[in-house]
Amino acid sequence: MINRLLNETEAQAVLITDPVSMRYISGFRGGEGAVYLSGNRRVLITDSRYTEAAAAESEFTVAEESAERKRYEILEELLKEDGVETFAYEDLSMRCSELFDLQEKLPFIRNWERLGSRADNLRQIKTADEIAKMEKAAGIADKALEILLGMLKPGMTEKEGACELEYQMKKLGAEKTSFDTIFASGVNSSMPHAIPSDKKLETGDFVTIDFGCTIDGYCSDMTRTVVLGRADEKQKEIYNIVLQANEAALAELKAGVRGCDIDAIARKAISDAGYGACFGHGLGHSVGLYIHENPRLSKTDCSVIQENMIETVEPGIYIPGWGGVRIEDMVVVTREGYRFLCHSPKELIELGV
After folding, report:
1. For residue range 299-323, what is the model confidence (pLDDT) as tens digits?
2. Domain segments of the chain: what residues?
3. What is the pTM of this model?
4. Would you state the pLDDT for residue 1?
5. Residue 127: predicted pLDDT
6. Cis (ω within 30 of 0) for the bond into 295?
7. What is the SS3 assignment for 257?
8. What is the Cα–Cα distance from 332 to 262, expressed in whole angstroms?
9. Thinking of the domain 2-121, which architecture would CATH place it in?
10. Short-list 143, 152, 189, 142, CA closest to 352
Protein backbone atom coordinates (compact mmCIF):
# COMPACT_ATOMS: atom_id res chain seq x y z
CA MET A 1 0.00 0.00 0.00
CA ILE A 2 2.73 2.47 0.98
CA ASN A 3 4.90 1.40 -1.94
CA ARG A 4 1.94 1.98 -4.26
CA LEU A 5 1.56 5.52 -2.94
CA LEU A 6 5.27 6.24 -3.35
CA ASN A 7 5.37 4.69 -6.81
CA GLU A 8 2.48 6.84 -8.02
CA THR A 9 4.40 10.06 -7.34
CA GLU A 10 7.61 11.63 -8.61
CA ALA A 11 8.56 12.37 -5.00
CA GLN A 12 11.19 10.64 -2.89
CA ALA A 13 9.03 11.14 0.23
CA VAL A 14 5.40 11.80 1.15
CA LEU A 15 3.83 13.74 4.02
CA ILE A 16 0.44 12.53 5.28
CA THR A 17 -1.50 14.92 7.52
CA ASP A 18 -5.17 14.07 7.03
CA PRO A 19 -6.35 12.20 10.18
CA VAL A 20 -8.24 9.53 8.20
CA SER A 21 -5.30 8.91 5.87
CA MET A 22 -2.95 8.78 8.87
CA ARG A 23 -5.11 6.16 10.54
CA TYR A 24 -5.48 4.04 7.43
CA ILE A 25 -1.77 4.08 6.61
CA SER A 26 -0.23 3.88 10.10
CA GLY A 27 -2.94 2.44 12.37
CA PHE A 28 -2.69 5.46 14.71
CA ARG A 29 -6.14 6.63 15.81
CA GLY A 30 -5.23 9.91 17.52
CA GLY A 31 -5.50 12.09 14.44
CA GLU A 32 -2.95 14.68 15.66
CA GLY A 33 0.39 14.79 13.89
CA ALA A 34 1.86 13.71 10.58
CA VAL A 35 3.22 10.63 8.84
CA TYR A 36 6.47 10.71 6.87
CA LEU A 37 6.99 8.04 4.24
CA SER A 38 10.03 7.35 2.10
CA GLY A 39 11.72 4.35 0.60
CA ASN A 40 13.72 4.00 3.81
CA ARG A 41 11.41 5.18 6.59
CA ARG A 42 7.96 5.07 8.11
CA VAL A 43 7.79 7.77 10.78
CA LEU A 44 4.78 8.90 12.83
CA ILE A 45 5.20 12.40 14.25
CA THR A 46 2.96 13.38 17.17
CA ASP A 47 3.13 15.13 20.53
CA SER A 48 3.37 13.84 24.09
CA ARG A 49 -0.40 13.47 24.46
CA TYR A 50 -0.36 10.66 21.91
CA THR A 51 3.11 9.11 21.82
CA GLU A 52 2.22 6.19 24.10
CA ALA A 53 -0.92 5.35 22.11
CA ALA A 54 0.93 5.83 18.82
CA ALA A 55 3.64 3.36 19.84
CA ALA A 56 0.97 0.81 20.81
CA GLU A 57 -1.20 1.24 17.71
CA SER A 58 1.41 1.62 14.99
CA GLU A 59 4.51 -0.24 13.86
CA PHE A 60 5.97 3.04 12.57
CA THR A 61 8.83 4.79 14.31
CA VAL A 62 7.33 7.43 16.63
CA ALA A 63 8.99 10.84 16.76
CA GLU A 64 7.82 13.28 19.43
CA GLU A 65 7.24 16.88 18.41
CA SER A 66 7.28 19.64 21.02
CA ALA A 67 7.97 23.32 21.56
CA GLU A 68 11.65 22.43 21.75
CA ARG A 69 11.62 20.13 18.70
CA LYS A 70 9.10 21.34 16.18
CA ARG A 71 7.61 19.25 13.38
CA TYR A 72 9.49 21.03 10.63
CA GLU A 73 12.77 20.34 12.46
CA ILE A 74 12.01 16.62 12.56
CA LEU A 75 11.07 16.72 8.89
CA GLU A 76 14.22 18.62 8.03
CA GLU A 77 16.37 15.88 9.59
CA LEU A 78 14.50 13.11 7.79
CA LEU A 79 14.43 14.85 4.42
CA LYS A 80 18.13 15.70 4.47
CA GLU A 81 19.12 12.20 5.57
CA ASP A 82 17.01 10.73 2.74
CA GLY A 83 18.31 13.24 0.19
CA VAL A 84 14.80 14.35 -0.74
CA GLU A 85 14.39 17.08 -3.35
CA THR A 86 10.76 16.39 -4.36
CA PHE A 87 8.29 16.13 -1.46
CA ALA A 88 4.60 15.20 -1.86
CA TYR A 89 1.84 16.48 0.43
CA GLU A 90 -1.94 16.06 0.84
CA ASP A 91 -3.18 19.17 -0.90
CA LEU A 92 -6.84 18.14 -0.47
CA SER A 93 -6.58 18.46 3.31
CA MET A 94 -3.58 20.64 4.19
CA ARG A 95 -4.30 24.31 4.85
CA CYS A 96 -2.51 26.82 2.65
CA SER A 97 -0.94 28.40 5.73
CA GLU A 98 0.57 25.04 6.76
CA LEU A 99 2.02 24.50 3.29
CA PHE A 100 3.46 28.01 3.07
CA ASP A 101 5.02 27.61 6.51
CA LEU A 102 6.67 24.32 5.55
CA GLN A 103 7.95 25.75 2.29
CA GLU A 104 9.51 28.63 4.19
CA LYS A 105 11.07 26.33 6.79
CA LEU A 106 12.30 23.74 4.26
CA PRO A 107 13.77 25.85 1.43
CA PHE A 108 16.07 23.05 0.25
CA ILE A 109 13.06 21.13 -1.13
CA ARG A 110 13.13 21.94 -4.83
CA ASN A 111 9.72 20.54 -5.79
CA TRP A 112 6.48 20.25 -3.85
CA GLU A 113 4.15 17.68 -5.42
CA ARG A 114 0.41 17.59 -4.75
CA LEU A 115 -0.95 14.13 -3.94
CA GLY A 116 -4.47 14.93 -5.09
CA SER A 117 -6.75 11.97 -4.39
CA ARG A 118 -4.00 9.34 -4.42
CA ALA A 119 -3.96 8.83 -0.63
CA ASP A 120 -7.78 8.68 -0.50
CA ASN A 121 -7.85 6.20 -3.39
CA LEU A 122 -5.99 3.63 -1.31
CA ARG A 123 -9.17 3.18 0.74
CA GLN A 124 -11.66 2.67 -2.09
CA ILE A 125 -11.74 -1.14 -2.21
CA LYS A 126 -12.52 -2.58 1.19
CA THR A 127 -11.03 -5.70 2.76
CA ALA A 128 -13.19 -8.41 4.32
CA ASP A 129 -12.26 -7.07 7.76
CA GLU A 130 -13.32 -3.53 6.86
CA ILE A 131 -16.62 -4.75 5.44
CA ALA A 132 -17.29 -6.79 8.58
CA LYS A 133 -16.80 -3.72 10.77
CA MET A 134 -19.19 -1.65 8.68
CA GLU A 135 -21.72 -4.46 8.64
CA LYS A 136 -21.58 -4.60 12.44
CA ALA A 137 -22.05 -0.82 12.63
CA ALA A 138 -25.00 -1.06 10.23
CA GLY A 139 -26.55 -3.83 12.33
CA ILE A 140 -26.35 -1.64 15.43
CA ALA A 141 -28.02 1.19 13.52
CA ASP A 142 -30.80 -1.16 12.37
CA LYS A 143 -31.52 -2.24 15.94
CA ALA A 144 -31.37 1.30 17.32
CA LEU A 145 -33.86 2.49 14.71
CA GLU A 146 -36.23 -0.34 15.56
CA ILE A 147 -36.13 0.71 19.22
CA LEU A 148 -36.59 4.38 18.36
CA LEU A 149 -39.61 3.80 16.14
CA GLY A 150 -41.34 2.18 19.09
CA MET A 151 -40.83 5.37 21.07
CA LEU A 152 -41.74 8.12 18.59
CA LYS A 153 -44.94 9.96 19.39
CA PRO A 154 -46.52 13.39 18.97
CA GLY A 155 -44.99 15.95 21.30
CA MET A 156 -41.46 14.55 21.18
CA THR A 157 -39.01 17.08 19.73
CA GLU A 158 -36.62 16.42 16.87
CA LYS A 159 -33.71 16.94 19.27
CA GLU A 160 -35.13 14.35 21.65
CA GLY A 161 -35.55 11.85 18.83
CA ALA A 162 -32.00 12.33 17.61
CA CYS A 163 -30.63 12.11 21.15
CA GLU A 164 -32.52 8.88 21.85
CA LEU A 165 -31.29 7.29 18.64
CA GLU A 166 -27.68 8.18 19.40
CA TYR A 167 -28.04 6.85 22.95
CA GLN A 168 -29.42 3.55 21.71
CA MET A 169 -26.56 3.10 19.21
CA LYS A 170 -23.96 3.67 21.90
CA LYS A 171 -25.81 1.43 24.31
CA LEU A 172 -25.69 -1.32 21.67
CA GLY A 173 -21.91 -1.00 21.32
CA ALA A 174 -21.18 1.84 18.88
CA GLU A 175 -18.14 4.02 19.48
CA LYS A 176 -19.77 7.21 18.25
CA THR A 177 -22.02 8.53 15.52
CA SER A 178 -20.65 8.54 11.95
CA PHE A 179 -21.82 12.15 11.55
CA ASP A 180 -24.27 14.56 13.16
CA THR A 181 -27.65 12.83 13.12
CA ILE A 182 -30.24 14.32 10.76
CA PHE A 183 -33.73 14.14 12.28
CA ALA A 184 -36.31 16.23 10.45
CA SER A 185 -40.11 16.24 10.73
CA GLY A 186 -42.97 17.80 8.82
CA VAL A 187 -41.95 20.77 6.69
CA ASN A 188 -38.37 20.47 8.00
CA SER A 189 -37.96 17.20 6.11
CA SER A 190 -37.69 19.21 2.87
CA MET A 191 -34.14 20.11 3.95
CA PRO A 192 -31.80 17.23 3.07
CA HIS A 193 -29.34 18.10 5.86
CA ALA A 194 -31.74 19.55 8.39
CA ILE A 195 -30.41 20.10 11.91
CA PRO A 196 -32.60 18.64 14.69
CA SER A 197 -34.61 21.42 16.28
CA ASP A 198 -37.07 22.01 19.10
CA LYS A 199 -39.94 21.41 16.69
CA LYS A 200 -42.37 18.90 18.15
CA LEU A 201 -43.51 15.89 16.15
CA GLU A 202 -47.11 16.13 15.00
CA THR A 203 -49.56 13.53 13.76
CA GLY A 204 -49.27 13.31 9.98
CA ASP A 205 -45.63 14.37 9.87
CA PHE A 206 -43.06 12.77 7.64
CA VAL A 207 -40.03 12.01 9.83
CA THR A 208 -36.73 11.63 7.95
CA ILE A 209 -33.86 10.10 9.93
CA ASP A 210 -30.34 9.97 8.45
CA PHE A 211 -27.83 8.44 10.84
CA GLY A 212 -25.02 6.02 11.43
CA CYS A 213 -22.40 4.86 13.91
CA THR A 214 -18.85 3.57 13.93
CA ILE A 215 -17.11 0.35 14.91
CA ASP A 216 -13.32 0.56 15.14
CA GLY A 217 -13.55 3.80 13.18
CA TYR A 218 -15.59 2.38 10.29
CA CYS A 219 -18.90 4.09 9.53
CA SER A 220 -22.42 3.04 8.74
CA ASP A 221 -24.93 5.29 6.96
CA MET A 222 -28.68 4.84 6.48
CA THR A 223 -31.78 6.98 5.97
CA ARG A 224 -35.38 6.00 6.56
CA THR A 225 -38.50 8.15 6.29
CA VAL A 226 -41.65 7.23 8.23
CA VAL A 227 -45.04 8.83 8.85
CA LEU A 228 -46.35 9.58 12.31
CA GLY A 229 -49.90 8.34 11.93
CA ARG A 230 -51.63 7.66 8.62
CA ALA A 231 -50.02 8.80 5.38
CA ASP A 232 -52.15 10.85 3.01
CA GLU A 233 -52.25 10.18 -0.72
CA LYS A 234 -49.55 12.68 -1.62
CA GLN A 235 -47.21 11.28 1.01
CA LYS A 236 -47.76 7.80 -0.37
CA GLU A 237 -47.16 9.04 -3.92
CA ILE A 238 -43.88 10.79 -3.09
CA TYR A 239 -42.65 7.94 -0.94
CA ASN A 240 -43.31 5.34 -3.63
CA ILE A 241 -41.54 7.41 -6.30
CA VAL A 242 -38.42 7.61 -4.12
CA LEU A 243 -38.62 3.91 -3.32
CA GLN A 244 -38.92 3.04 -7.01
CA ALA A 245 -35.88 5.22 -7.78
CA ASN A 246 -33.92 3.49 -5.03
CA GLU A 247 -34.84 0.03 -6.30
CA ALA A 248 -34.23 0.90 -9.96
CA ALA A 249 -30.71 2.10 -9.19
CA LEU A 250 -29.94 -0.95 -7.05
CA ALA A 251 -31.15 -3.25 -9.82
CA GLU A 252 -28.32 -2.03 -12.09
CA LEU A 253 -25.59 -1.60 -9.48
CA LYS A 254 -22.70 -4.05 -9.81
CA ALA A 255 -18.96 -4.11 -10.40
CA GLY A 256 -18.05 -2.59 -13.77
CA VAL A 257 -20.76 0.07 -14.04
CA ARG A 258 -20.10 3.81 -13.85
CA GLY A 259 -21.31 5.85 -10.91
CA CYS A 260 -22.82 8.53 -13.15
CA ASP A 261 -24.91 5.90 -14.97
CA ILE A 262 -26.42 4.59 -11.73
CA ASP A 263 -27.20 8.16 -10.65
CA ALA A 264 -28.92 8.74 -13.99
CA ILE A 265 -31.23 5.74 -13.48
CA ALA A 266 -32.58 7.05 -10.17
CA ARG A 267 -32.71 10.62 -11.45
CA LYS A 268 -34.76 9.56 -14.49
CA ALA A 269 -37.29 7.72 -12.30
CA ILE A 270 -37.84 10.86 -10.26
CA SER A 271 -37.86 13.18 -13.29
CA ASP A 272 -40.33 10.99 -15.18
CA ALA A 273 -42.68 11.30 -12.22
CA GLY A 274 -42.48 15.09 -12.45
CA TYR A 275 -40.20 15.82 -9.49
CA GLY A 276 -36.78 16.14 -11.13
CA ALA A 277 -36.29 19.64 -9.79
CA CYS A 278 -36.80 18.31 -6.26
CA PHE A 279 -33.77 15.97 -6.31
CA GLY A 280 -30.64 18.10 -6.22
CA HIS A 281 -27.93 16.03 -4.55
CA GLY A 282 -25.99 13.04 -5.85
CA LEU A 283 -27.41 9.55 -5.53
CA GLY A 284 -24.73 8.20 -3.25
CA HIS A 285 -21.15 7.94 -2.06
CA SER A 286 -18.65 5.48 -0.77
CA VAL A 287 -18.24 4.93 2.98
CA GLY A 288 -15.32 3.78 5.11
CA LEU A 289 -13.24 5.42 7.83
CA TYR A 290 -14.76 8.67 6.56
CA ILE A 291 -18.47 9.04 5.93
CA HIS A 292 -18.24 10.61 2.44
CA GLU A 293 -15.60 8.83 0.39
CA ASN A 294 -15.04 8.30 -3.32
CA PRO A 295 -16.11 7.09 -5.78
CA ARG A 296 -19.59 8.57 -5.78
CA LEU A 297 -22.82 7.82 -7.56
CA SER A 298 -23.36 11.26 -9.05
CA LYS A 299 -23.69 13.15 -12.30
CA THR A 300 -20.11 14.38 -11.97
CA ASP A 301 -18.33 11.10 -11.08
CA CYS A 302 -18.06 8.57 -13.89
CA SER A 303 -15.60 6.32 -12.06
CA VAL A 304 -16.09 2.60 -12.63
CA ILE A 305 -17.50 0.94 -9.51
CA GLN A 306 -15.48 -2.08 -8.44
CA GLU A 307 -16.08 -5.21 -6.39
CA ASN A 308 -15.91 -4.67 -2.61
CA MET A 309 -16.53 -0.96 -2.78
CA ILE A 310 -19.14 0.28 -0.31
CA GLU A 311 -21.76 2.61 -1.77
CA THR A 312 -24.89 4.35 -0.51
CA VAL A 313 -27.99 4.65 -2.69
CA GLU A 314 -30.08 7.54 -1.41
CA PRO A 315 -32.52 9.21 -3.78
CA GLY A 316 -34.84 11.86 -2.39
CA ILE A 317 -37.61 14.30 -3.17
CA TYR A 318 -37.72 17.57 -1.23
CA ILE A 319 -40.60 20.03 -1.56
CA PRO A 320 -40.15 23.31 0.39
CA GLY A 321 -43.11 24.15 2.58
CA TRP A 322 -44.43 20.58 2.40
CA GLY A 323 -41.73 18.08 3.34
CA GLY A 324 -39.54 15.43 1.84
CA VAL A 325 -38.52 11.79 1.61
CA ARG A 326 -35.13 10.11 1.43
CA ILE A 327 -34.47 6.38 1.46
CA GLU A 328 -30.83 5.35 1.83
CA ASP A 329 -29.23 1.93 1.77
CA MET A 330 -25.57 1.08 2.28
CA VAL A 331 -24.38 -1.87 0.20
CA VAL A 332 -21.20 -3.73 -0.67
CA VAL A 333 -20.76 -4.07 -4.43
CA THR A 334 -20.25 -7.57 -5.84
CA ARG A 335 -19.47 -8.89 -9.32
CA GLU A 336 -23.13 -9.64 -9.99
CA GLY A 337 -24.79 -6.93 -7.95
CA TYR A 338 -24.66 -5.92 -4.30
CA ARG A 339 -25.28 -7.06 -0.75
CA PHE A 340 -27.21 -5.01 1.80
CA LEU A 341 -25.33 -3.99 4.93
CA CYS A 342 -28.39 -2.34 6.49
CA HIS A 343 -31.64 -4.27 6.71
CA SER A 344 -34.28 -1.91 8.13
CA PRO A 345 -37.61 -2.16 6.25
CA LYS A 346 -38.11 0.13 3.29
CA GLU A 347 -41.88 -0.11 2.88
CA LEU A 348 -43.72 2.98 4.12
CA ILE A 349 -44.14 2.70 7.89
CA GLU A 350 -47.12 4.46 9.47
CA LEU A 351 -46.33 4.70 13.17
CA GLY A 352 -49.11 4.26 15.65
CA VAL A 353 -51.60 2.92 13.08
Report:
1. 999 999 999 999 999 999 999 999 9
2. 2-121, 128-351
3. 0.95
4. 82
5. 98
6. yes
7. coil
8. 15
9. 3-Layer(aba) Sandwich (3.40)
10. 152
